[in-house]
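Shall we go through a protein fold together, starting from nothing but its sequence? Label the sequence line and the structure token line clearly, so we can match residues to local backbone shapes. Would you write everything just below, so we can both look at the same thing?
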Amino acid sequence: MISRRAFTVLGAGAALTSMTGLPAAQATPRGVRDVVLVHGAYADGSCFAAVIEGLQDAGLRVSSVQNPLTSLAEDVAATNRVLDELTGPAVLAGHSWGGAVITQAGLHRNVAGLVYLAARAPEVNEDYAALAARFPTPPANAGIIESGGFRRLTETAFLRDFAVDVPHRQARALYAAQGRVAATLFASRTSVAAWRSRPSWYAVSRRDRTTAPELQRFVAQRMGARTVELDTGHLAPVSRPAAVTRLIRTAAAQLG
């Protein structure tokens, strides 16, 4: 297993991309050929559309989970159903709330490594709201509204904070498709922390207005993840799909 360490710049023997600090992945990943993507709250699997195309173009087999966003247990069950169908090892990647899901589901026999994208990375039985309260309150929090036991973001908060650097027309389409979130979802606690026994990568979104970048850096360091920083807002899979694709390809290559 590769030793856990943070990286933003590699030595001269590895190719670099000047914009992201990510190492260039091999054209054909060794060993790991499957990727499972897990979306976050206020979103659905379509937020990975451009990432899926990039990974498929690289010869990887990709599945995007559709989380019900009703409970951690049900989101993990949806992820496990996809993982159960695989015949080999996979990279399991989660965005935002999806990080809690992959933390719980990541001990599945078909998971070789984990990729976190501006994501939660809880410790076992951790009160994540209490942890987040130690860091700056993100502006998007002020735009959460509730109806019938489910929460969503107002259009203003979605466009200004959640999808801050997504083209306006695309952001409005994502707003229309946003997933409603059970009001009790974020109180869920994980019973395992898969990052303790799986190699992990983390992409921090520097201009995130939904999850504090300071919190992202804290959990990435705590988990010993190989860490990169992207100059983007919360929806990195939409605004920076090439960088996200490259990170997942790198994980797949290094796990081979």
